[in-house]
Amino acid sequence: MTTAADIMTPGAQWIPVTETLDRAAQLMRELNVGALPVSDTNERMCGILTDRDIVVKCIAAGHDPSQVTAGDLAQGTPRWISSESGVDEILDEMGGHQIRRLPVIDENKRLVGMISEADLARELGDDQLADFVARVYA
Question: Which domains are seen in the chain, by residue range?
Answer without folding.
Answer: 4-136 (3.10.580.10)
